[in-house]
Amino acid sequence: MIQLNGISKIYPGKVFDTYVLRDVDFKVNEGEFVTIMGPSGAGKSTLLNIIGMLDDFSEGEYHFLDQPVHKLNDKKRAELCKAYIGFIFQSYHLIEELTVYENIETPLLYRKVKSGDRKSLVCDMLDRFGIVGKKDLFPSQLSGGQQQLVGIARAIVGGPRLLLADEPTGNLHSKQGEETMAIFRQLNRDGTTILQVTHSDKNAAYGNRILHLHDGLMTDQPTER
Q1: Residue pair 37/204 in contact by the 8 Å Cβ criterion
Q2: Which candidate, 96, 98, 89, 56, places its Cα nearest to that of 165?
Q3: pLDDT tier at 206, thresholds 50, 70, 90
Q4: What is the spatial distance between Cα 107 and Cα 36, in angstroms, rounded to a whole number?
Q5: Helix axes 115-128, 144-156, angle to 10 degrees
Q6: Contact, 109 vs 118, CB < 8 A?
Q7: CATH (domain of 174)
Q8: What is the total count of domains within the chain?
Q9: 8 A C-beta contact, residue 144 and residue 151
Q10: In this protein, which residues make up the domain named ABC transporter (predicted)?
Q11: Is residue 149 predicted with pLDDT exceeding 70?
Q12: pTM for the whole thing?
């Protein structure tokens, strides 16, 4: 599903260039549940954003579902992302002008899902995450944990083939975190490919493979769990 060859992210400087990612190679097969771990500033979120086609890379090649992302224009990349990828952001990225219901519904509008089906899918997410009573509230009226739940619901409502999760349980209390990871595990068993960034060994244990990033470099070979 994902093949990265020689991916680097470079910010040019007057004296020295800054490498956020340096010559990263790795592959993710469809149906895997892969974790990326490493210290803060290692490039984990940048790598996830590149895979999600939200950020450009400076060097290398990226293939997603056999499509050469490095050769596609912005429109084609956006179409691929909307059709196949769900993204859980560490900082929520909810649309402030939309209610909880409308935020969760947004990916379905992009995919032109029929109105009746949209309502059914959104209601299922509201119920699954215990936020039915929050459906008419705006993000500013929610706690950080509630916003995170809405972001997770929005990411998975359309049944993406690839789920990218950046510290998905970082703002949740322990029970919510465990329930969310159990949902991820079931999604993966049902065929969703998952790539998560986390500092949590407990969350990493839900996956089948761990990759380590340090100073923009993959420091070791994938370890089967």
Answers
A1: yes
A2: 89
A3: very high
A4: 25
A5: 140
A6: yes
A7: 3.40.50.300
A8: 1
A9: no
A10: 2-225
A11: yes
A12: 0.92
